[in-house]
Every structure is written in structure tokens, then in C-alpha cells.
Amino acid sequence: MYSQRSEGEEHERKAITPVINVPGFENAGYGRIVRFEKPQQLGVLLERIGNGLGDLHGLSVAVPQSIPAESKPHIRITSIGICAGSGSMLNGLDVDMLFTGELSHHEALAAIEQDKVVVTAFHSNTERAYLKERMLNMLLHHIGDEQHSIGDYDLAVSKVDRDPFEIVIAGAKEW
10, 38 in Cβ contact below 8 A? Predict the structure, then answer.
């Protein structure tokens, strides 16, 4: 069973570890597995990730060491394990790509030795994007519901909070 995306790609999504017994969040869970009906090129997926996360300066990408540099953007991805923040829960999944905020050096090595691609965008960058793009609207919807009303409130996602890490290019004089 595949669901339709606005860009025309069909895919299937399911929670890795579903949340149970939380009314209104029946499809929620810790992480997602996305399976595409048609394989997607890694370069296209990286562009989408960058666009979706906003003003990032880059992504960390690990691919199997046997892949020549000119072939990396063309790696075919049919499935992705996704988890905001720390992606240790993605270890052992039967997917082509792991996308998370952070993964340890040894976890990434183990993944690429299993012919998987690893993409990380820093821990809090992945969480902030989710808070801003998805969670805020869900909270507003449920809090605004008469059954969940808590009176006068303001709900906002910080616009000044940022990831504690910065990417600094060696030799840069200002950063």
C-alpha cells in the first residue's frame, strides 16, 4: 500500500516504534521507515533534505567505500530509516539509507560496511525542523480543541535557539 506525494512519487511510511494508547497520535512513533515504489537518487534526496531543514551549511554523508566519487549522487535509494536527534535506534534496520541528526563513528562505519548510506544533519537541527514544521501545528490543533483547552496560552517555537555546533572551514578568519 503506497500513499501519493505531491511531487508524484509514491511511498509507504510507517513508525519504527509506534506510540500506543495516545489518542490523536495513532500514527506517531519513534522514527519512520519510508519505502519508495520507485528508487530515488541520493543526490535528489540530499537536495530535498537540505531544502526541508532550511538554512543548514551542509550535511554529513557516508557511503560504502567501494562507491566511486562520481557515482555517489546516483546511488539508488529504495528505503530510508529516519529519526530526529540521535539515530542509534536505526541500527539494524533493513533499509538503504539512515537519516538522522547524529550517529556515532562506529555506527556509521558498520552501516556503510552493510552497503547503507548514512546522512546526518546534527542532532538539534533535525529536532528543530520537526518542531517548527510539524509538531507546532499538531499541538495548536489539539490544544485548541475544546476537550484539550487549557485557557489563555501562547505556543511558539524559538527563532533564536540554534544548534550549539557550527561548521568552521579550516583557515577561516571569521565564523
Answer: yes
Residue 167 lies in a domain: no
Residue of 43, 60, 67 whose CA lies nearest to 108: 60
CATH value at residue 48: 3.40.1390.30
Cα-flanking dihedrals φ and ψ of residue 152, to 5°? Answer: -70, 135
Instruction: Provide the domain count of the chain.
Output: 1
Contact 97, 76 (CB under 8 A): no
In a domain, 139, yes or no: no
Query: What sign does the CA torsion over 75, 78, 84, 88 have?
Result: negative
CB atoms within 10 A of CB 78: 15
Which is nearest to 45 in space by CA: 65, 72, 85, 14? 72
Listed in sequence order, the residues at least 6 apart from 59 whose beta carbon sits closer than 8 Å to its beta carbon are: 46, 49, 50, 119, 120, 121
pTM over 0.90: no
Q: What is the pLDDT of residues 145-155, one digit of tens each?
A: 555 555 666 66
pLDDT, one tens digit per residue, over 96-117 is 999 998 999 999 999 999 999 9
